[in-house]
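Hi Y.,

Following your request, here is the sequence exactly as I used it, all 386 residues.
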Amino acid sequence: MSVLADTNVVLGVSGSIAAVKTVELAHELRREGANVTPVMTDSARGIIHPWALEFATENEVVTEITGKVEHVDLFGADGWADVFLLAPATANTVGKIAAGIDDTTVTTCATTALGQGVPLVVAPAMHEPMYDHPGVLDSLDTLESWGVTVVDPRPEEGKAKIATEEAIVTTTARVAGDSPLAGQHVVVTSGPTSETIDPVRVLTNRASGKTGRALARACYVRGADVTLLHDGTDVPYASVERVESAAEMTETAVEVVGGGADALVSAAAISDYTIEASDEKIRSGGELTLELEPTPKLLDTVRASAPDLTMVGFKLETEGDDERLVATAREQLARVGLSFVVANRADALAGDETRVIIVREAETTSYTGPKTAVANDIADELAVEL
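Below is the corresponding structure, written out as C-alpha cells. Let me know if you'd prefer a different format.
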C-alpha cells in the first residue's frame, strides 16, 4: 500500500518561483496514492498556469473564493481535505497565516484548516535573507506552536530552496497518517557493508539498500523516530549513522540501542567475513590468497546488550523451497529471540520488486510487490509488536 493511499490532499501554491516544481510534486503525491486538489494565489498564477495543475491532478483548481465557499467545502466540519500542504510557502504567505490574515485563496484556506483542526504542512521557499528575517522566523515558530509542521528548506546558492519532493511527500504522509509507531525509536540497518582489503579494494555484496531505506521511511511515516545505519547519504526521514564495515555497523547498533531504542530492524546485508587489511595496495598480476575471518553476528551482539529489545531480523537464502526458507528463518528466530524474521531470496537483492515471508513461531505471512510497498507491510507488522 502506498503511503498516501486514499488521502485527500489540498495543495496550496503561493507566489514563489518554486511554484514551477508543483506539477511534479502533484504527480508524486498521486503516485503515493493521494487525491490532490490545488489552490492557487494570484501571484502563483503569474508563475504557473492553473491548467498545468489541473492536468497534473485531474481536479479543478481553486483560484478564487466564490459563493460556493470553496474553503469551507475543503476544510469545514464535513470538508473534503485530510491535510493541507502549502508548497511553496512565501515569506508573505507565512506571515499572513501567522497573523490570522486571510486575503488570498491560500491564506483563507489556511485559516479555515487551522480553525477546524485539519493538519497543515508548510514548505517555505524564498531567498535566504528573507528566510533569515526575524519576522519570518518568528512566524514559522508561531505556526509550529499551533501544531503546523514545517518542512525545512535547503540553503543553497543564497536561497532557501524548497525541500525535496521526497521530504515533502514523506512529511505529508506522516502528518496525515494514523501514527501507530508514534513515540517509538526504531533503529534500521540497511544496505551492504564493505570490508577493506587494501586502500583500493573492498569485499562487499550485491545488496542495494532499497528495502532498508524504504523500511526506515515507512516507520517514519507511521510516527516513529528513526535512526538509519548505512553506508549512504542523509535522508529526510531518519537520523543517519554512516557505517562501512560489519564491525562498524555492529558497534554503532549497540551504541544507538544503548542510548534508548524501542526496536531494531536489521535489514542490512552484513558481511559474514572480514579480512586483515593491507596498508598498501596489493600488486596485481599474480595469484592471491585471502584469509577470511568470520564477523560477529549483529543480532546476537545487540541481543546480548539489550535482552528485552524488540528485534526483527532478515534471512536470505539462494537454495531450497519456501519450507526450507521458513525453517532456516525459525532457527534464527529462536536463537536470537526475535519478534519475527523477514525471509527472502537472493534474486530480489538488486531489483525494485521483492517477495518476502514474515516468519513467526507459529505462523507465516507472504507479501509480494515493490520494495516500497512491502516495506509498508513490514512496518505494519512491527507496529503490532510495539
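The longest helix spans residues 322-336.

Thanks again,
Q.
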